[in-house]
Amino acid sequence: MIKPxxxxxxxxxxxxxxxVVGGTAAVVQLSTLALFKLVLxxxxxxxxSFILATATHYSLNRFWAxxxxxxxxxxxxxxxxxxxxxxxxxxxxxxxxxxxxxxxSVMWSAVVAVPPSTLxxxxxxxxxxxxxxxxxxxxxxxxx
Length: 144
Known about the structure:
The chain has 144 residues and is mostly helical. The chain has helices spanning 9-36, 42-65, 73-102, 106-113, 118-129.
């Protein structure tokens, strides 16, 4: 039998909150991209808007959508940044594909680039970076 991706009610709620956070981060990214593209090249504008959206995404996930019992904050931040880096590579690759190969505008290229990495990022954040399970008896903080 195939195990569902979102098996529990708690995981489903976390996913819905993650989507709200993602929507908020998307608004930050697209609004700052609209401003930055007026004075910067498309790649720099995309990168700066991605950084601002990522900071928003981390903060809202860490403290609201995916609250975590982990206490190893520095390691957690490193894991988050690694996940964000993967997300950036997926997003930038698709952004460049849409912009250069398909011929979409800067804004539409950014819109199309965001959704494909959403599920991958959620799974990494929910089950690794911001995991919500309780620590096993006798485990050190952050080892759950």
